[in-house]
Specification:
Layout (H helix, E strand, L loop, with lengths): L1 H24 L3 H4 L10 H17 L1 H20 L4 H108 L2 H49 L4 H63 L2 H23 L2 H4 L1
Helix pairs in contact: 1-5, 3-4, 4-5, 5-6, 5-7, 6-7, 7-8
């Protein structure tokens, strides 16, 4: 760009110098040559003419030759007609006429060059404007790309959080499976073992109840985190629709798919929570039932021991039958209780 500007400045200076030369060449010949009383040219005018000639010689090589020939002709005319000034004027006029015509051609050429240079200047200005516009467009593109990448980053972070939540849910499911296995083991142990082991199992079940409560708390926290994630997704979708106008439909479709997937995941999680709650209720019911059975067995053993001391074998069998009927009816009443319905 600096080279172009330097070239343009030199061209303008050359045009200006040519105009000055043409103006000076069109001056009357009488003003350029004044004679003294002895018929000689004054020294100051000689110096001015020499300076102008040197200026013309420096401007271009072609003008140097023409000026040299014409100046030599004028100097010869001066030397030959120094004694007769009238003859010098008569011979000078055709020389000056010859001197003006090539300069006019040069002026025309320089004017044509000037027009070309002006066109080049206009083109260069247009190119500069286009470059500035391109820079602005690139800057806007960078800003838009940065704005579009921000929601993508948020989406990636949300996906990572969703993966973490899924892992935690899987851990909860595995814990529930372990609880079910523990329940089965406890039931088998209650049937086979005595009251002491039943008490131990009751303690284990209490520990499991605490674990279930912790799982419920974790599930609630997960639900709250899900709500936060859905809100973040909604905010991200609103930002994307507001900022990106070119690929808005694609981004919205992707976000809608992700929202639908999250809704499905939320529904699955809610179902799992309901299952956990149901299993917890069943565990509590089983605990109550086992405690009740233990109490009944203890009372039965005590009563059996008391009655066996003072009754005969026939009466003992009758008491056993009555107790069986009573306990069978009580079990049916327990399973049809409102707690079971809840």
């Amino acid at each position: 760009m600096t080279v172009r500007l330097g070239f343009l400045v030199t061209a303008l200076v050359a045009v200006y110098a040519v105009k000055q030369i043409s103006i000076k060449s069109l001056r009357p010949a009488a003003s350029t040559t004044k004679y003294s009383e002895n018929g000689k040219i004054s020294s100051k005018q000689d110096q001015n003419e020499k300076g102008e000639k040197e200026h013309f010689i420096d401007f271009s090589s072609t003008t140097v030759k023409e000026h040299g020939e014409k100046v030599s002709g004028i100097s010869n005319a001066k030397s030959s007609n120094s004694k007769n000034p009238l003859a010098f004027h008569d011979e000078k006029e055709p020389i000056l006429l010859k001197y003006h015509y090539p300069e006019k051609n040069q002026v025309k050429e320089l004017e044509g060059r000037k027009v070309k240079i002006e066109r080049k200047l206009l083109k260069s200005y247009k190119l500069k404007e286009q470059e500035s516009e391109l820079d602005e467009l690139q800057r806007h593109l960078k800003i838009r790309t940065a704005e579009i990448e921000m929601p993508n980053i948020t989406i990636n972070s949300l996906q990572e959080e969703r993966k973490k939540l899924q892992e935690e849910i899987e851990k909860g499911v595995s814990a529930m499976k372990q609880l079910e296995l523990a329940k089965r083991k406890i039931r088998s142990q209650i049937v086979t073992q005595g009251d002491a082991k039943a008490d131990k199992n009751v303690k284990i079940l209490e520990i499991l109840e605490l674990k279930i409560l912790e799982l419920k708390r974790k599930n609630k926290e997960l639900q709250l985190e899900k709500r936060d994630l859905t809100l973040k997704l909604i905010v991200a979708t609103s930002k994307i629709t507001a900022k990106s106008s070119v690929t808005a439909s694609e981004v919205v479709s992707e976000m809608e798919e992700e929202v639908n997937n999250l809704k499905i995941a939320n529904e699955d999680l809610s179902k799992q929570v309901e299952r956990i709650q149901r299993s917890m209720f069943s565990v509590v019911e089983e605990l109550v039932y086992q405690r009740w059975v233990n109490v009944c067995l203890r009372h039965e053993i005590q009563n059996h021991q008391r009655f066996s001391m003072g009754l005969g074998p026939k009466t003992q069998e009758k008491v056993k039958k009555v107790s069986r009927v009573f306990y069978s009816g009580s079990q049916w009443h327990f399973f049809s209780s409102p707690f079971q319905q809840e």
